[in-house]
UniProtKB/TrEMBL annotation:
This is Methyltransferase domain-containing protein. It holds the Pfam family Methyltransf_11. The lineage of its organism: Bacteria, Pseudomonadati, Pseudomonadota, Gammaproteobacteria, Candidatus Kentrum. Keywords: Methyltransferase, Transferase. It comes from Candidatus Kentrum sp. SD. One of its GO terms (biological process) is methylation. The keyword Aminoacyl-tRNA synthetase does not apply. The keyword Isomerase does not apply.
């Protein structure tokens, strides 16, 4: 869901993992299909597919844009085969809370280079909250992992690489409590 530029789908397909991209944006579908990628990207959403179609549903920085999180997870549960997986990479609340505490702000989060983009990001859910949300919709939490930072140029790129080095040292000790991890990768397994 939300294949962005199609890079993840292309990577999976090049490693012999059958992958199909689905996006609700006509512009993104046109972009992906016009870049000579070896992946099908179709216009639509999960409702476009029969129940129990997928082994895995992957969303990269999409979940935070949704409005009805429970409804989406119920739909994903229906579209996954038995023992299927839902994987989501998303910014989480702990980093946002940390930034606000430094800025002494209780107002709207500033746009932080796409990590938080008000008003497009509707919710930043904590790691614990995301697990509870998934579990009440028929999933077991298999893993919560630190996601790598995006690669940028200039000072911002240097800063993000520096933070990632710190995160790699701190993550094994503090796990989800470590406040400098911007995004987490959640792996959930469908239960019957």
């Amino acid at each position: 869901m939300g294949p962005v530029g199609g890079g993840l789908c292309e990577l999976l397909n090049s490693n012999k993992v059958q992958c199909e991209g689905v996006d609700q944006s006509k512009e993104m579908v046109t972009y992906c299909n016009g870049n000579d990628m070896s992946i099908p990207v179709t216009l639509g959403d999960l409702n476009s597919f029969p129940d129990q179609t997928f082994d895995t549903i992957v969303m990269c920085t999409v979940f935070e844009h949704l409005i009805e999180h429970d409804d989406f997870l119920k739909l994903a549960h229906k579209k996954l085969r038995n023992d299927g997986f839902f994987v989501s990479v998303q910014p989480t609340a702990h980093f946002a809370s940390f930034v606000c505490s430094i800025l002494k702000s209780s107002g709207e989060l500033p746009d932080l280079n796409g990590a938080f983009s008000p008003p497009w990001h509707t919710a930043l859910i904590s790691c614990k909250g995301m697990s509870k949300l998934a579990e009440r919709n028929g999933f077991n939490t298999i893993e919560i992992a630190m996601s790598p930072n995006t690669r940028r140029k200039g000072f911002l790129g240097f800063f993000l690489r520096f933070i990632e080095i710190i995160n790699r040292i701190a993550w094994p000790i503090f796990r989800e409590r470590w406040p400098l991890v911007i995004c987490h990768t959640f792996v959930f397994k469908k239960i019957l």
